[in-house]
Amino acid sequence: KQEVTQIPAALSVPEGENLVLNCSFTDSAIYNLQWFRQDPGKGLTSLLLIQSSQREQTSGRLNASLDKSSGRSTLYIAASQPGDSATYLCAVSILEYGNKLVFGAGTILRVKS
Amino acid sequence: DTGVSQDPRHKITKRGQNVTFRCDPISEHNRLYWYRQTLGQGPEFLTYFQNEAQLEKSRLLSDRFSAERPKGSFSTLEIQRTEQGDSAMYLCASSFVVWTANEKLFFGSGTQLSVL
Q: Is there a smaller number of Cβ atoms within 10 Å at the N or the C end of chain B?
């Protein structure tokens, strides 16, 4: 059974700091790995998607890496801003057809101004 | 593109009552997903549709749960004889996909269910 773990559970940093969020998964048989952002009481917004054959993806100040063999992914956020405060969720896709995602519990990020 | 719309945003019901939620996906999206999220946890997969066909159901989806997507457009999720353990945020997502490996999901804001 695929399990996804995110560390740390919560993180508080001053504005401007670079930070790394970690995600690990137990079964390397995945089709993609995705990072999402969730604001309180809201749905999820897709940030980055890394296909299983890829090593990393970048979007603006965000960079996500994937090491499938070791079952790890990291989300790097450069020059953090208060608007980055949210819960960040990592998820892996375990179906060949259909995006059946297994999520981690998330990392709650607070960026202090 | 108005995004994925879910109705209602909040639902309070008494144990034993039936409830129905609606999801309107982004127009032209061929896949529609239902997930459930409890406080402090990530979402859990419930079921998904490719057009009008329901292709995968989680074991979390007991006989009290049923989902439909008539004509491949909007979807409904019905819970019969609600239990307190059904209290959660029910999230709908949609996508237009040719290849699953690069499928991007668009989530709605969810329906928060509270069973008293």
A: N
Q: Is the peptide bond before A14 cis (omega within 30 degrees of 0)?
A: no
> Which of B91, B100, B103 has its CB closest to that of A43?
B91
Closest by CA to A104, choosing from A36, A46, A52, A53, is A36
Per-residue pLDDT tens listing for chain B (116 residues): 579 999 999 999 999 999 999 999 999 899 999 999 999 999 999 999 999 999 888 887 889 999 999 988 999 999 999 999 999 999 999 998 877 667 889 999 999 999 99
Is B70 an interface residue toward A (CB < 8 Å)? no
* Among A35, A44, A103, the residue to mutate for chain B (most B Cβ within 10 A): A44
Contact A81, A109 (CB under 8 A): no
Instruction: Evaluate whether A112 touches A82 at the Cβ level (below 8 Å).
Output: yes
pLDDT tens-digit profile of A29-86?
898 999 999 998 888 999 999 998 999 999 999 999 999 999 999 999 999 999 999 9
Look at A46 and B104 and tell me if their CB atoms are within 8 Å. yes
